[in-house]
Amino acid sequence: MATTRILAIDPGSRITGFGIVDVTNGKSIYVNSGCIRLPDEALSVRLKYIFQNVSALLEEYKPNEFAIEEVFLAKNANSALKLGQARGAAIVAASLQELEVHEYAARRVKQSVVGNGNADKAQVQMMVQLLLNLTSKPQADAADALAIALCHANTRTSGGLEYGVGKRAGRASKRWTEQDVRKTL
């Protein structure tokens, strides 16, 4: 009955979301989440800030596993490069703690949590709130990080299933509704 703690990061060059969940017997339990709001400084200062804050989260919460969103192809190449550098700062912090880094495409995260790889931020927020039994919707970047943590928890506990959680993952539509989630809680 060991508990695994997952720290997940939704990297950004202006706001980096983080989410922390504990997984016990296949059930994900909310620990903490939030946003690292980066100063309006040079990119090098923002990257240092990401590294320092992720390092502090690693030190305080001592996760066993680390998950992060993969870089997606943005319309603006400069934005994609900055995002990649933000990811790099977080990945180095985790690597220095000897944590294996698990990477997930945004589409896979949305598919795992919402049941639709094209889900919008509001849908992700709602499903994260329901799946973790939160009293209110988390801020968008924190919700994205929690969704990454849930995707990792689902993947590591369900043999790589990409749609939903547990036995319901095999349903034909592969879409989750609020009613479906409430039945599993």
Task: Give a verbal description of the structure.
This protein has 185 residues and is of the alpha/beta class. The protein has six helices and five strands. The protein has a five-stranded mixed sheet, with helices on both faces. Helix 1 runs parallel beside helix 2. It is globular.
Derived from helix and strand composition plus strand pairing, the structural class reads: alpha/beta
What integer is the average pLDDT? Answer: 86
Beta content: 15-25%
Strand order of the largest sheet: 3-2-1-4-5
Order of helices and strands: EEEHEHEHHHH
- What is the multimeric organization of the chains shown? single chain
Count the E strands.
5
What characteristic shape results from the CA principal axes? Answer: globular
- How much helix, percentage-wise, in residues? 40-55%
The profile of the biggest β sheet is:
5 strands, mixed
> What's the total helix number?
6
User: Distance between the terminal alpha carbons, to the nearest Å?
Assistant: 20 Å
Low-confidence spans: pLDDT under 50, at least 5 residues? 159-176
Question: In angstroms, what is the radius of gyration?
Answer: 16 Å
Short account of what is shown:
By secondary structure, the protein is α/β, with parallel strands linked by helices. It has helices spanning 43-61, 77-96, 106-113, 121-131, 140-157, 178-184, and strands at 3-10, 15-24, 27-37, 65-69, 101-104.
